[in-house]
Design a protein that fits this description.
This protein is of the alpha+beta class and 426 residues long. It has a four-stranded antiparallel β-sheet with strand order 3-4-8-5, with helices on both faces. Strands 1-2 form a two-stranded parallel sheet. 38% of the residues lie in helices and 9% in strands.
Length: 426
């Protein structure tokens, strides 16, 4: 969804035009949020009851038959490869000893009559040429190829989760807004970056980094016209997340999304008050969640590295974080990507692999849109993710996510590499 970019006004006419655009934007989002809030207590409980009755009776939930939004986007620009949502074969895996719940089985109550295009094809698995990614799942993806599974995922969420999502939608009204007409100078780009990072930390960011916004950081149908991207991360409560996958851990995930979105929105507002364009790219809300890819931005901004489980690993919190992004034209000094030794460990560690119930993790890097990188088999991961209301097993069993261990791992791995002549193990 294209979003109008607010820039410093040059006269009363611009001020009035910006106020009008903001009014229209806010009214539309408020109306949508109110509709979702009503559906949360009416339509969704009814749909959930209908599906639960079918499950209890032993019937199959045919995803195409579920009442819900129509689908229109079929990824016609990609070669069709049918998805196979059957879990990969292999022995039954035991949970890590510190996890608090047993992992749910991979027997799904739903199925496709006609499988959609493979999520791996959408993501560009095996493609030799670079291209910008397509949005596949989560957020406003109901109209897309995997929309029915996404809809099932949303329908089966408990009302408490829907309420948190409604709060995110309401909060998202403030992610854009008019820019102050006068500029407040923050000194050099280095001084401006230090100011922004300190501000982000004060309002709740656990980690913050800055990079230039590049086309490959944006979905193929998104073109935000900004120069810089500020990555912010907020850690999740580790004790709560050890109960994953469960309603308890699901609520922790959603509360953290609410928190990291709030940080990004407040930071964008503060930058606009300085006289520079800025908007927050948040999670889940319509339009906002399909603008940019938070993980590549955060990696480029020096927050961490990509792990075998497909999530970013930080030395401070492992992968036990949630991300959001602020896009801006405020002149800033950028950070550089950090090598913390993730590849050295992931190439030989199999903990996330052996704890993944549908066996969705590859033991080695894959070619994805012209780049060899760690990748998760979407067709195997997404159904389990949907059935368990968000999963998250792989990021919690990861050794880096153990509190206090990441910094030690980083030092050990980098020192060992120095001893081996400085060559990274991949």
């Amino acid at each position: 969804m294209a979003m109008h970019k607010f820039v410093p006004p040059t006269g009363p006419g611009d001020v009035l035009a910006d106020r009008w655009r903001l009014l229209i934007h806010g009214a539309g989002l408020q109306a949508f949020t109110i509709a979702v809030a009503i559906a949360t207590h009416t339509v969704f409980p009814l749909l959930r009851w209908m599906q639960q009755r079918r499950i209890l009776s032993g019937g199959v939930i045919w995803l195409e038959d579920m009442p819900g939004p129509p689908q229109s986007q079929r990824f016609d620009h990609l070669a069709f490869v049918p998805a196979d949502i059957t879990p990969n074969p292999g022995p039954v895996r035991k949970r890590a000893r510190f996890m608090k719940v047993e992992y749910p089985a991979t027997a799904y109550p739903f199925a496709y009559r006609q499988p959609p295009i493979s999520g791996n094809a959408i993501n560009g698995l095996g493609e030799e040429r670079p291209r910008r990614p397509d949005h596949v799942f989560f957020g406003d993806s109901y109209k897309r190829a995997w929309g029915k599974l996404d809809w099932y995922f949303q329908v089966m969420e408990p009302t408490a989760i829907h309420r948190l999502i409604v709060r995110m939608f309401w909060q998202d009204r403030a992610r854009v807004g008019p820019v102050a007409p006068s500029v407040t100078t923050l000194g050099t780009p280095e001084e401006a970056s230090a100011h922004i990072k300190a501000l982000a930390t004060r309002i709740g960011a656990g980690l913050v980094g800055i990079t230039r916004l590049r086309p490959e950081f944006c979905y193929h149908d998104s073109n935000p016209d900004f120069t810089y991207a500020i990555a912010v991360a907020v850690p999740m409560d580790r004790e709560e997340m050890l109960h994953t996958p469960s309603e308890r851990s699901n609520q922790q995930i959603m509360r953290t999304y609410l928190d990291v979105n709030r940080v990004a929105i407040r930071l964008a507002h503060a930058i606009r008050a300085l006289g520079y364009p800025a908007q927050a790219s948040t999670n889940l809300a319509p339009g906002s969640s399909t603008e940019v890819l938070h993980v590549p931005i955060a990696i480029a901004a020096g927050l961490g590295q990509l792990g075998k489980h497909g999530s970013m690993i930080t030395p401070e919190f492992g992968s036990n974080v949630r991300l959001a992004t602020v896009l801006t034209d405020l002149p800033l000094a950028v950070d550089q990507p950090r090598d913390i030794g993730v590849d050295d460990l992931c190439a030989h560690c199999r903990i996330c692999e052996t704890n993944c119930p549908p066996h969705a993790l590859f033991p080695e890097k894959q070619l994805v849109r012209g780049q060899r990188r760690w990748y998760v088999n979407f067709d195997k991961c997404a159904p389990y993710f949907a059935e368990t209301r968000g999963c998250g097993i792989c990021i919690e069993v990861c050794p880096w996510s153990t509190p206090g261990r990441g910094q030690e791992l980083m030092r050990t791995l980098l020192e060992r590499r120095q001893g081996d002549g400085g060559a990274a193990r991949t």
